[in-house]
Amino acid sequence: MTNAAVASRMNAVHLPPPGRVQPRNLIIGASILLAVASILSLSIGATGIGLTALPRAVSAALAGQQTADSLVLLNLRLPRLLLGLFVGAALATAGAMMQGLFRNPLADPGVIGVSSGAALAAIATIALGNVWAAPLMKLFGVYALPLSAFIGGFGTTMLLLTMTRRGGDVIVATLLLAGIAVAAFAESLIGLISYASDDRELRDLTLWRLGSLSGASWPKVIAITPFALCLALLLPRMVRSLNGLLLGEAEAYHLGVDVPGAKRLIVFTTAAAVGAAVAVAGVIGFVGIVVPHLVRLLGGPDNRVVLPISALLGGSAVLIADIIARMAVRPAELPLGIVLAVVGAPVFLHLVLRRSLGRTE
Amino acid sequence: MSFQRISIATLGACIAAVFMAFWITSARANDTKILSIGGDVTEILYALGQQDRIIAVDATSQFPADALKTKKNVGYFRALSTEGTLSVGAGIVIASERAGPPDVVKALRAASRYVDIPDGTTAEGVPAKVRAVAKAANAGPQGEALANRIEVDLALLAAETAKIKTRVRALFVLTAQGGRATIGGGETSADAILRLAGLENVAATVVGYKPVADEALIAMAPDLVIVMQRAPGDSDQEKVLALPGLAMSPAVRSKRVMTMDGLYLLGFGPRVASAARELMAVAYPDLIAAHK
What we know:
The complex is a heterodimer of chains A (361) and B (292). With 361 residues, chain A is an all-alpha fold. Chain A has helices at residues 3-10, 23-43, 54-62, 68-102, 114-128, 134-140, 144-163, 172-196, 199-210, 218-245, 249-254, 259-281, 287-299, 303-327, 336-360; strands spanning 165-166, 169-170. In chain A, α5 (114-128) packs parallel to α8 (172-196), α5 (114-128) runs parallel beside α12 (259-281) and α13 (287-299) packs across α14 (303-327). In chain B, strands 6, 7, 8, 9, 10 and 11 form a 6-stranded mixed sheet that branches. Chain B has a 5-stranded parallel sheet with strand order 3-2-1-4-5, sandwiched between helices. The termini of chain B are far apart. Chain B is globular.
């Protein structure tokens, strides 16, 4: 049976069921939203410099000068926009992949230990930066924190993958339970470090865990570019196996999916993408769970729709939340994670309740 | 169709946001205006009479209360935002060396005149801090005068503490939330001010501000308990008196439990000598009375 046949069997009628949106309309809508969010992200900020200053900024930058316009538009807002896009897209697609792999609507990248591993490494760097890790901090400067967060997150998941492999295959149930155990262990070490921290370190830890795009810079954009490319190249290759896994591992195998290989690839890609996102923006929850669900509510479970739309909507959600985060209490800034949850959770709740009430009628 | 409705609503909201954005006036950088980052920096600038030049402060600038009421607030000093900080249009940024995050500080350094102020919780550090802030604000003579005054106060204080024969054993309580006391152990600003006032910190073996068990409190048996006050009128004094671990202590029995403003006591700004003197007046009434 081909993939298309499976998809058409799942959506027995070609017309989408009531409340569902045609994939084409969904892609158009999500692209418009992303474009609007990107333009706004570039034009709104505390200094009040708008898009009208862009030509001046570009010509100044080309002439090798730094003016207020070029500093704000090209060195602060543009890298922030690009990082926001990547973080949103990476978290949303990683969430979609995890929910597909575990066949569980509650799965998010935290399940395989990326977030807790990254948090542990980052928090250890913050708290021990003046003591044991001081030479490391000297060597890498401002990049010590993102670097250790990435290594911590990616490393934890790879360790988990190695531990749970039995003869080349990853047992998903074992991976889930081992992930919970590893996350709990990391959390306990984080607790231990927080206990030993002083007031300021404690506030640093808390703020880092709430996530922010505030430290966006070109070197960070360059650092995440390979991950963005990797994600863009690997995602289309995972659509077929994820659609197969939707039916079950045995069914996927009979559809011709290399199940062990697909599972390893999914875990590896998630670890790399989320590790990079956490490294540049801190822990940002919510996007990984809510965006893929929103897409499934609107467009159905076919991963040919879920993965790309999740990427577009995830990027838009992070950019819009970031605009609110930097404007609400300007010249100060709110943590991004708070804004995402405060704005997004009620919207999501509304959609879920309306959907389930509609079904009982 | 729900999605279309959502996207139309979002689009509308975004367009409204653009119009809002045009309303925000951009501040032009003014060379004499100061952005003060750090509670001690702001306090020193006020003490130097430079308050009218301060255009914005950080969220820890709680003394004088006027600072956060009348100046713009750029947020917590360890979580600054590059564009937000630039938008206040200050010509000089005077910041505690603990300001952050590092990448924002790096960007600010490149974009404006940025002066680091050494951070420290030692009495000797205070005059140096005052001189550094005054130099950055081009108020050298006022700074020298204030620093000299603080040095004289500290010297007087040292002369008084030298006369102490038996040190009073004191305990600093940060909070007593939920019937559990969090106390100021060694290597904290509380420990530093207790020692400056010639007191012995009974919790010196605990490092940092830590919650302690009732049994440990019994063993500490302080003669004097200092409870931190966060805002006027708010105090954990009642809760501290109710702690079973302190019920038997000399401090509670002789009712030597005092409440002091946290910023005043732990700020290590220009008021450090007077805060220490206030502690001494309670701990060693004979000594201070004799001096006066």
